[in-house]
Hints:
The complex is a heterodimer of chains A (100) and B (214).
Chain A: H1 3-26, H2 33-40, H3 66-94
Helix pairs in contact in A: 1-3
Chain B: H1 12-33, H2 39-52, E1 57-59, E2 63-65, H3 70-76, H4 80-98, H5 106-128, H6 133-158, H7 164-196
Helix pairs in contact in B: 1-4, 1-5, 2-4, 3-4, 3-5, 3-6, 4-5, 5-6, 6-7
Amino acid sequence: MNTRNRNFILGGLAVALIIAILAPFLASSNPDGLESTAESLEVPESEAAFQSPLPDYAIPGMEENPLGGVVSLILGTILVLLVALGLAKLLSKKNGNGQP
Amino acid sequence: MHIPDGFLGWTWPIFWIIAIVAVGYSLKWARENLDERNIPLLAVLAAGIFAIQAMNIPIPWGTSGHMVGAALIAILFVSPWAAVLVLSIVLILQGLIFGDGGMTALGANIVNMGIIGGFVGFYSYKTLKGVGRIPAIFIAGWASIFIAAIACALEMAIAGTFPLTEGLLFMGLYHAVIGIIEGIITVVVILGIERVRPDLVPEWVRGKKKEVTG
């Protein structure tokens, strides 16, 4: 990977991480459009069919602490970047266009 | 718009099947179209979309909404399949790790936000780009989330979770407003990328270059 691409990834990741760090403090805690519709129509909340490790972007045991959200979102942002990068590289190599 | 478990009743496997077929096509698109040049953009946008989906912006009626990003990806990669790929990565990780969107509802969430969002965004921009790229990008962003919300309301009605009319009314109203956020951010991100890396912005969305005279 050349320097230009590396710098673009680092710059883009920095922007994404700034959003991830600010989101737990700035994001509205109002229900989203679907949740709001469900509330208006008195649809009961449902149970998750699968227990995720960091439900609602919170660290279990410190749900009230926005830092848990910050840590979750930082982890998630980096993970999404790595998965997308890895998958894309894997797929593009199969076609032989992995070389610049 | 992430559907939780339980809201789809018996219908959830149908959406899983549609989503799996679409993800297959999106992987085929990736094999044929991704290269050293555009992979960084795809990865960075996926990370950015994950982060910005946590940034809920308040709208009236005690409600909030966030950007989805499917139109953005479809326009920048000139393919709705790119949006299916990126939104699928984001939605799978959100569901598995953060419980954002149910795992049984993952198929429907990919159908709504990835497939419908991506295709509506792509074809809206394709149809409207003659009017000017900025209004076309804005409307593509707006329509991508609005139509996805309408589809979501229909799915809720089929499952018997929401009554049809009220579901359409509330989902349509909220997402008509959330769509404005989607439209604005889609425009801002495309113009921002054009500023730092014009080579990553495809021909059909590039601004007219000033003519060189003399």
